[in-house]
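Hey, why these numbers?
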Amino acid sequence: MNKLIRMSYNGHGSVREYILQGIDTSCKLKEMKVEIDNSFLSLYNNQKEKWTLDELISKCVQEESKIKK
């Protein structure tokens, strides 16, 4: 749980990899019967609209591509 709480994107690698790492960590916790509310995992709660994880990853990849250009 500490790994999940202390995760932060450090600018290395892609945002997509960072999001998937968080999902992987949360799946491992669920396997150990540690329930995690989706709102805890949310990177987008402060936005006006809610996105699925696929939509979030897609938006992050698009923004990352714009930044690299």
About this structure: Residues 15-31 form the longest helix (17 residues). The mean pLDDT is 76. The chain has four helices and no strands.
